[in-house]
Every structure is written in structure tokens, then in C-alpha cells.
Amino acid sequence: MEKAYKAMSSAGAGSVALGIIMIVTGITTGIITIINGVRLLKHKNEITF
């Protein structure tokens, strides 16, 4: 019983850590995408065909 408890505790902690990393990565990716979109919209007048 003790062994199973320790295994579940480690798995839970790993899942929480992975979730935090995924949230930070998602927010960072979103911010970079928004910045690139704003830059494209800002410079669209300079494009000539």
C-alpha cells in the first residue's frame, strides 16, 4: 500500500509540473503569435505588387 501511495504521489507531482510547463509554453506561443500578427498588419501598407 505504501509503495502505491508513493508512486501516485510522484505521478501527481509530475503531472502538475508538466501542466505548468504546458501553460507557460502556450501563453508564450500566443504572445509571440499576436506580436507577429500586429507587425504584419503594421507593415501591410509597404507591400507592393
Number of helices: 1
Coarse structural class: mainly alpha
Which outline best applies?
Answer: rod-shaped
Mean pLDDT: 92
Query: Roughly how many Å apart are the termini?
Result: 71 Å
Tell me the total number of β-strands.
Answer: 0
Order of helices and strands: H
> What share of residues are in beta strands?
under 5%
Estimated helix fraction: over 70%
For the sheet with most strands, the description reads: none
Radius of gyration: 21 Å
Domain tally: 1
Low-confidence spans = none
Walk me through the structure.
- This protein has 49 residues and is an all-alpha fold.
- It has one helix at 2-42.
- Helix content is 84%, strand content 0%.
- The radius of gyration is 21 Å and the shape is rod-shaped.
In short:
With 49 residues, the chain is mainly α. The protein has 1 helix and no strands.
Explain the layout of strands and helices.
Layout lengths: L1 H41 L7
Descriptive keywords:
single chain, 49 residues, mainly alpha, 1 helix
